[in-house]
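hiii so my PI (J.) wants the whole complex modelled not just the main chain, which honestly fair. so below is everything: two entries, each one labled with what it is. i double checked the lines twice but i was tired so who knows lol
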Amino acid sequence: MYQIAIMGFGTIGSGVYDIVAANADILKQKSGQEIGIRRILDLREFPGHPAEQLLTHSFEDILNDPEISLVVETMGGVEPAFTFEKQLLLAGRHVVTSNKELVEKKGAELFEAARAGGAHFYYEASVGGGIPIIRNLSDCIVADRIDEISGILNGTTNYILTQMTSGGVSYEEALVSALALGYAEKDPTADVEGLDAGRKIAILASMVLGEAVHLEDVTTEGITGLTSTDFSYARELNMSIKLVADARFEDGGVRAIVAPAMVPVSNALYEVSDVLNAVTVHGDMVDTLMFYGRGAGSHATASAVLADVVCAARGVSPACHGGWSGVHARILDPLEAVHANFIRVSGSIDGVYELIRIFGGGSPVSAKKKEEFGFVTPVMSEAEFREKTAQLDGFIKRIRVK
Amino acid sequence: MYQIAIMGFGTIGSGVYDIVAANADILKQKSGQEIGIRRILDLREFPGHPAEQLLTHSFEDILNDPEISLVVETMGGVEPAFTFEKQLLLAGRHVVTSNKELVEKKGAELFEAARAGGAHFYYEASVGGGIPIIRNLSDCIVADRIDEISGILNGTTNYILTQMTSGGVSYEEALVSALALGYAEKDPTADVEGLDAGRKIAILASMVLGEAVHLEDVTTEGITGLTSTDFSYARELNMSIKLVADARFEDGGVRAIVAPAMVPVSNALYEVSDVLNAVTVHGDMVDTLMFYGRGAGSHATASAVLADVVCAARGVSPACHGGWSGVHARILDPLEAVHANFIRVSGSIDGVYELIRIFGGGSPVSAKKKEEFGFVTPVMSEAEFREKTAQLDGFIKRIRVK
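here's the output for the full assembly
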């Protein structure tokens, strides 16, 4: 019997409990031993719940129980999760987490604690929910020079953008619907401002480089400023507007961004809708791989947590999961990012000739309103784009083109 | 230095050589040691090739070299690959293969030889080319009851079908173009009759059940009978015609089929075009995951071979790669498969009322020719479909609806 504890009995933690109950036979077959839940840490009470007798309010009950081999942390937030996990790892207990904020901020310290304690630290569920992107990056794509990781890494915003695309609703209306369905949190800031996706792309970038990339290193732009007019232009362009997280690797460094992007129909991310997530990885040998599935949700994310538990129970060391060092990775200048841009400009479409002159090319997008028009710039650096935009009269906004 | 040998210096074998040369630093970082190629077995000569001095025509040069820890087999075909691999495994050498025919036919015997010899047998590149579907099934999707695996597993036929869809060309013209581009072999039978995809779905089904599923257990229908008229109807239905490999798991058994299918736009396989492959896996907890990428090609497939090499060099045992036993899996009756069907019927569209009566429902698809019309049946068992079709006058053909 492989005994585990769960810290945090919320959406994901209770999903772990459900799967261990429902699929005990499969877990046993894959692990070579039975998985048992010995303790659940939560501040709340769950009267009448079948797991009630496993509940404790005291972390020491887990730390001091020698029968517990592995602890699943699904509490979220940096503290007390960090303090708990560090103590567990130093005491030689394996830790599995779904906590992206913790992995992004404190990953290197936790890998170090794991080494010091002779334990393993696993974090599959911290990025992409049920999509096994961590294990694919660490174990499967190992012969390639990875030059880009790109994806839709936040289900809440993808749901909102899908509603705005197909339902023709405003951002505010779509957010209300996301809240009603439980897809958005009461304070949706981390999702809609791109911070959640920013943490996830920082984790993936850290894995590729073996050095720490943090949220602060990622350029983040949220979706709150998008309007139905933007989506009209997108339809005109046969593109969809997605919140795209992107990391480009060059010269041993990374340039990472989360921002709304116009995604052409030819791009695999174009069709990813609702709360689904997708990650593409481009390597010099394997070309583009895409991984697609549920980026959130109780059972999908818990399934990823249990993949880590099975791995630990089998005694498989997460070799490349060794993770990254505390050295801060080389962060490339965001002004050197190169892409085309969709822009909206006020005034008559006759102004397009002036735009073509300024940008040295580009093409108009027919106006949805009399008082403005759209324009797609040639591919250029961000620095050049800003310099040219400064010369523009009537610049309203831009959306990068993926 | 981790010394390997390559048997078969064709498309994939030479790709392995290329990657070891080009990405030595990455392989070393991921494996913890340098990967060296010590011997290459091929019957041909490669005068002037940088690998020339590694070449041997004698298998004994590999078997008897104690420096070689692992052998990559990229020869294809059952013999002599099987005899060579069995000897190597029994002698304690790890084996990595891309040979789907061998894995499908002799997998269980090779797993057994590996156990007997204390070696590991890896086969990531045997299914899906560069897509890491084997490792995802064995290591990542381990907490789920898998009820369906479905995919486009053959690049040659997907290229031909894409040409027939978008280029409006005939099957024969598309095949000529596939041959010219090197996507089809001179004898394209294994690809176009669905045998290649059948072997691959048999391997994936064997992994899920832990018991052997062979090509003979898979219902296979090829693409040679498809015509431009079928594609006209597909456009009318807003569907694409794909060669879909599908395995459904029920009651500890499997029902597997490779056949042309009408794929609705809502299905993730709809958009998979050209030589790309995609595999979807449905589990009871994680829902649907999709893996997408290059299903063939020298470097993409060699990248998957090297994922296995790195795994072995790290000393990671392919635990669930333990594979499957020689016990023949329970094969479910193909007549109990349940799906809708697109059919073509000769005669005037007035005949549709008679069809609706016979099938107890269904809907017409507007005629592309005066002398026939299309019809989509309700969802029904294959047995029921055959029984009802026997009552039909003017039945021309059917294509299953995915």
